[in-house]
Give the backbone structure.
Amino acid sequence: MNLSKKILSWYDNNKRTLPWRISKNSKKNQYYRILSEFMLQQTQVKTVIPYFNNFVKKIPNLKALSKSSETKILKLWEGLGYYSRAKNLHKTSKILIKKYKGQIPDDFIKLKELPGIGDYTANILLALIYNQPRIALDGNVKRVLSRIFNIDPAKALNLFKTKRNSDLAEALMEFGALICKPQEPICEECKIKNVCSYYTQGIKIKSKSNIKFHLKSYDIFCYLKKNTRQIALTKNNNLGFLKKFNLPKVKETSKKIKNWKFLCNYKNSISNKKLNINLYYKFSSKIPSKYNWYYLNENSEFIPSFTKKIFKQVSNLY
Ligand code: SF4
């Protein structure tokens, strides 16, 4: 059984019932999908569910949304945060009604012209609504792919082949939320553990420990500035082997970890050390005094390649 089939078979048996997961043939499907995707930006599923249910009760379709007042929409959005999402969704609904006869376009470029729709939302809508072979790379999916393949998640997308593209896009997100969780993946129950680099590497590491193969784990924490694509660095040499700029790091046991979002796990080698890096991030405009902001496209020779790799990973968030 290939990897897509295994993940889809897990999904068929384990997917959660969510109010926006309705029949693809339903007239409501496009509206439910675009509304839920806007609501889910930066927000957890369990938070979104009651807002979504209430919203569709009061504003049941795209046309009604386009005709609603902004005040009414913002009232329904109250408490969900990031209100620009609601305003953009409202503007988008008007354009969809006027220019596209109330249909969501099946074209990536046209979708991205709509307010509030970036690469991620365009990809997920095309996969979910039009079954296009696209996988939207959110934090969950990036983590799952980088754990399984131990390569850049964008390159891993070609390794999936299926006709059920829509289900696969959701299955990967669901798999990341329920099984391949950020901090404690349930590897023993995982249907694909035998082909997962993260799992099989762990076994190899254990079995080679008697011949001094040593993989050290580090949790690295990046403060990021949302609008300016900047990352906070310090000259403190926390990892003990980098002489110049570095990133904040705390131990995994720290309570602090709860306030950070997991981005990905990857392996790195520096001289004779093999490192298992767990990368976490937080968008913040405030940073501890010993740090300074640097642009992610900074190409200074003083920034070690190790740190530049981290720049590359966090760039995926923008
Ligand atoms: S074996 Fe573990 S790390 Fe690998 S995909 Fe499954 S849950 Fe994730």
Notes: The pocket of iron/sulfur cluster is lined by residues 147-148, 179-180, 185-187, 190, 192-193, 196, 198-199 (CB under 6 Å). The radius of gyration is 21 Å. The longest helix spans residues 83-99. The longest strand covers residues 215-225.
